[in-house]
Amino acid sequence: MRIGILGCGRIGRVHAGSVLALPDTRLVAVADAIHESARALADETGSDARTAEEIVSADDIDAVVIATPTTTHYDLIHALASAGKAIFCEKPIDMSAARIRECIDAVNRANIPFMTGFNRRFDPNFARLQRLISEGEIGNVEIVTILSRDPSPPPHDYVRTSGGLFRDMMIHDFDMARFLLGEEPDMIHAVGSALVDPEVARLGDVDTAAVTLTTPSGRICQISNSRRATYGYDQRIEVHGAKGLLRAGNVHQNTVELATRAGYQSAPAKEFFLERYEAAYRNELESFISSVRTVTQPVPSIHDGLKAQLIADAATESWKTGRSVQI
Amino acid sequence: MRIGILGCGRIGRVHAGSVLALPDTRLVAVADAIHESARALADETGSDARTAEEIVSADDIDAVVIATPTTTHYDLIHALASAGKAIFCEKPIDMSAARIRECIDAVNRANIPFMTGFNRRFDPNFARLQRLISEGEIGNVEIVTILSRDPSPPPHDYVRTSGGLFRDMMIHDFDMARFLLGEEPDMIHAVGSALVDPEVARLGDVDTAAVTLTTPSGRICQISNSRRATYGYDQRIEVHGAKGLLRAGNVHQNTVELATRAGYQSAPAKEFFLERYEAAYRNELESFISSVRTVTQPVPSIHDGLKAQLIADAATESWKTGRSVQI
Amino acid sequence: MRIGILGCGRIGRVHAGSVLALPDTRLVAVADAIHESARALADETGSDARTAEEIVSADDIDAVVIATPTTTHYDLIHALASAGKAIFCEKPIDMSAARIRECIDAVNRANIPFMTGFNRRFDPNFARLQRLISEGEIGNVEIVTILSRDPSPPPHDYVRTSGGLFRDMMIHDFDMARFLLGEEPDMIHAVGSALVDPEVARLGDVDTAAVTLTTPSGRICQISNSRRATYGYDQRIEVHGAKGLLRAGNVHQNTVELATRAGYQSAPAKEFFLERYEAAYRNELESFISSVRTVTQPVPSIHDGLKAQLIADAATESWKTGRSVQI
Amino acid sequence: MRIGILGCGRIGRVHAGSVLALPDTRLVAVADAIHESARALADETGSDARTAEEIVSADDIDAVVIATPTTTHYDLIHALASAGKAIFCEKPIDMSAARIRECIDAVNRANIPFMTGFNRRFDPNFARLQRLISEGEIGNVEIVTILSRDPSPPPHDYVRTSGGLFRDMMIHDFDMARFLLGEEPDMIHAVGSALVDPEVARLGDVDTAAVTLTTPSGRICQISNSRRATYGYDQRIEVHGAKGLLRAGNVHQNTVELATRAGYQSAPAKEFFLERYEAAYRNELESFISSVRTVTQPVPSIHDGLKAQLIADAATESWKTGRSVQI
């Protein structure tokens, strides 16, 4: 399998590392709007630095990883689909559901494999949790609880253009809810406030939020997000079912415990998302390449990308109107 | 301090035990609609078996514990208030907020001490959690998460008359939310379904439910309830604040861990609420008696009883209408 | 069952509480060298204050709890045996194995029930651990590890007369080793030092010690003791077997966890032995009385008391000589 | 830094991976008695397949990793020392302390950097534990407890030539004891038995063993080993000090917990030593190369290799004679 990577920022570099580690897979070329970034990554990985256009039209590349800014995804997906390349695209596919639908059309017409980069499905803990559910360990799912807090808030510039917390942060949890509920949620209720940084309210966003999703059969999912957690990257999920409870706890920095007069003290959760989800990123790309190789449709698909976006849109509307919204 | 107990069922007996264990406190008399129950408890505790009326009018009793069925509370509170007795009343005070307001008037007119039996505030874990919040350990409270699942559903007869899950079960969590949020919640959104037992839907109730509360300053509380938990009585609370996270986990049956090929296995949570909250019941009555003795108003007060009931009413309305409701 | 208690100190009072809580059991009388102590406990418990002699010869007492200083045990056991009373005796029975053997003769001649107060066997956690072993959950026992640390060292006066750490503190662990190994240990090796308090060395004792026991079939038990633990009363046991591992962890003060930049902090272990072993003391006396009632020999027996003492003697010799000692 | 690797088995391949991941470090050549193994690793890593002799005398290699069978170490160390190469040597350096001393002479004469591959010092958990000790978090060290159990016993062939459990397995724990005690142990007492596999006894070895080490000032270390653990690779260390307790727990396969009627079940410990100590192997080689680069003596040094071997010899003697042995 011959791979090209578009975008040589933090995420692009992670995917490059994953490609290098996979057997029978070759990183052929990388591209970036800043050519020096592409040059540097190409040198480190023994690949070519090319332009995005060259990668789109290359004969020696089978599959392309899109790790560029969201605004560029739409055009790249159309071009790559026309060129018949398999596509791995970082989330979100686009900020507009209508435009994602156009991407779906392009992908369908070209009949190419497409994976949306919801990496958390590939976290070994969350993947195992889902597998145990699907194996019936806890019976029917009844309540899903997702607690997600980032170590620290993003810069104001990011907040201005991200589409808001529900679209840039909680979207991961919406995908996880769909992954675990075993049924599509059809109603959503959202609340939010700016408790970490009042400036966020002036920018029209929230930094603390909670959502309730329900499904037609009455399953419930509660999600809460905060842009700040002093104790590391807090990523916990639990699923209450008819026969038991499954939960995946945080990944901590180490196993050392100190016991003193003050009590028992153990390490904070891992802080940096690339470290926390290191295995998830690796497994995700492996799954994509394996799907392309075996000509099966990758999961999460482009439809999964659309559905999470639709939930994020509905969450934003619910937060703004104070009303429950049909998804 | 000379105590009378009205109601010699499960809870009345627990309170009798607490009275016996307290120094300088004497259990004078007990009463029950079934006189044999009163007789039996009186014999075990070395107290008198009397009628409720005799206890209300007794000269040798300073304070009375009401542990009778909810429908009798209203009349007993009025009679005891007229008689000038200090009152400890099991929750809920009454199913109707209007009638609770009338009880408040009676208590105010009589100027007597009154405690509402929200025992969980006196659980050593939850009490400590609240104390650490009030000492500023996690800064401003931002998100409260309450997970509460009963070991097994109540009989259908109970469901028919209990006022519904939000009033008979989640009311404890509403009181806990008020206890921990540091601000009165003013909006509520509730969802619910009958997933444990479809018959519950036909009885007009739910057995699985989730609520979001918000406060004027934007603090958020998420609560979820289930009438069934295979792994014991599941009672967990966590509070996310500006400077950190506090959580109180379950109380397990023992500390033994078995590690085998299948992994590490530890004990279920304690199952029975009287065992799980043993210390809470003891501490609660001790706090009541100490307040009466020092002539300070007991907490949780009769107003706390009313406020939790009002939230439960609003939750019920929100669940039925699908709309957020102002409290 | 009619009970008398000899010794109204800390432990005597605990046993009085246990007797009061047991059904069909009556605390008839208590005695203490300091008559006011007996008087006070008698008043609190509604029993008589008598002399030890009166209790020994009383017609209205079936079983007696010996909770007096160790030096008095020998005479009391002989007197009570002659009087045909069932005996519960706090450990150690006596500081001299030869004198314990004489007590055994007296008990055998009188054919009375006798329990040695090794309360830890009745701790719900350790009892469960042993039950799981005997049910075969981990197959044959191979390695037992016992970690035992007291919250703080005893006064020098106690050290002078206690017989030394191996006899006054580790003796509990020797009994636990016998309880769990499933085979009598026949060799011991001990080391010790005075690291907590150098004065202890001048008093001829140690405050930090470690022992290895082996059994004829090659099972191994490692024990370590310290007279000081800043983080509470540290009492942990684990048993490694052919099919798995069992361990019983500490009992903590509460379940509250605080997560901040510094990590996750939870409560110290319970500090006070009467609180840590509250259930053990209660269960122990219940077991004694149940044995007396059903005319079965109580366990741990007087022989268990002797055997632990013999191991403690051997440990002391091994520590002093630096050689392994046959038990 | 230009690296050569001798031995392309499991461990040699791990070190090759570590070299590839290090910046400014190049894997120049690999060698193996089975040339195809060298060929295969060379191809995967873009390095040369050479003979050991060629690597010893190569001009384009600065440092060499010895990952060949123990019996070859002596000659290779002498040859590499003569050639002035920096040496990283897997433990044990040699089965004979006398021959290790000759290696020390050769290394001293050549004045080359030499690291002994006690990888566990570089495990992030154990390294952090040691750092916290050295920063005074628990005051003076008093009792070190090391519990080490392999997932499954080695083949009989290995047992025949390994030098015995104390030399091939517990040697890691002896190095860890020296790493943590803060003082050289001077006395040892060892016991052992063949409980996992009786055949091991016929081969003159044990599969279950326990050791007590003491230091001149009275610090104590207890170690126990088993060749079998059903629940994963069990590697736990705890250190009791004057001011508190430090412990490093196992590394588990995932964070998922399943709660059902049977209790709470979580994942076994990681099974495979290369996975369990993945970070340790990486950090170890990074430390070696950093020492060579900065011309500081690597730690653990060749003397650390000798000292652990001397303790293993003393343990073996103590086990055979039943006597405590001076180290």
Architecture overview:
The structure is a homotetramer of 327-residue chains. The first copy, chain A, is of the alpha/beta class. Chain A has two domains: 2-112, Rossmann fold (3-Layer(aba) Sandwich), CATH 3.40.50; 121-281 and 307-326, Dihydrodipicolinate Reductase, domain 2 (2-Layer Sandwich), CATH 3.30.360. Helix content of chain A is 40%, strand content 24%. Chain A is built from 13 helices and 15 strands. Chain A has helices at 10-21, 35-45, 52-57, 73-82, 97-110, 124-134, 156-161, 165-168, 170-181, 199-202, 273-276, 278-293, 302-321; strands at 2-6, 26-31, 48-49, 63-66, 86-90, 114-117, 141-149, 187-193, 208-214, 220-226, 234-241, 245-248, 256-260, 263-266, 325-326. In chain A, strands 12-11-7-10-9-8-15 form a seven-stranded mixed β-sheet. In chain A, helix 4 (73-82) runs parallel beside helix 5 (97-110), helix 5 (97-110) runs antiparallel to helix 13 and helix 9 (170-181) crosses helix 13. The mean pLDDT of chain A is 97. The A-B interface holds A 140, 142-143, 145, 147, 149, 187, 189, 191, 193-196, 208-210, 212, 214, 217-220, 222, 224, 226, 228-231, 234, 238, 240, 242-245, 322-324 and B 140, 142-143, 145, 147, 149, 187, 189, 191-196, 208-210, 212, 214, 217-220, 222, 224, 226, 228-231, 234, 238, 240, 242-245, 322-324. Strand 13 (256-260) of chain B pairs antiparallel with strand 12 (244-248) of chain C, so a sheet runs across the interface.
